[in-house]
Amino acid sequence: MTQLLATLKLTAARKPRALPDVVKRRQKLLRKLGEQRELAAAQSAGGNYVPMRLRTVKDAQTGERVVREMPVRIKPWWWTGEKGETLLSVFYGSKTLELGKGKTAIEISNSKDLVSVLDVLINATQNAELDTQIENASVKLRDGFKSK
To answer: How many Å apart are CA 57 and CA 33, to the nearest integer?
Structure first.
């Protein structure tokens, strides 16, 4: 048994009680970018991507609350522009991220490049390049919930 443990890399790490807010926000955006990537890959292959989520619903016959797996509709973050180009915006919640000074969309000449552009965005998010934009969008979202 001890020889098997010797093959593993052991460390004295401790699990943090709570992740920093910036890491939570980054992970949230990464989940959404991953869904958009799956949707784009499915559409380019001619298929559909329908993720499932657990939802609590009331059973019509018994009146009990039951947890069921339900399909979720994902709205694509891309659309076709006036010149036939594909445009992609990145959303954090309901807010569009400003990717550059006054720039909120990415122009993609060919819709087949959409998956690779989403891969670049995922890598940029993992490398903390969008943390400032995520923070700004988060502040705007929080301000919308404050009572006046």
So the answer is: 28
CA–CA gap between residue 105 and residue 110 (Å, rounded): 15
C-alpha span between 51 and 78 (Å, rounded): 18
Distance CA 48, CA 40 (A): 9
- What value does the mean pLDDT take over residues 24-48? 93
Beta-carbon count within 10 A of 130 CB: 22
Is residue 27 within 8 A of residue 90, CB to CB? The reply is no
SS3 16: coil
Q: What is the mean pLDDT of residues 45-69?
A: 90
pLDDT at 113 over 70: yes
CA 31 to chain centre: 3
Give me the sheet containing 86-88, strands edge to edge: 78-80, 86-88, 106-108
Instruction: Kindly state the tokens that stand for 16.
Output: 């943090």
For 47, the 3-state DSSP assignment is coil
Angle (CA) 65-71-77 rounded to 5° is 130
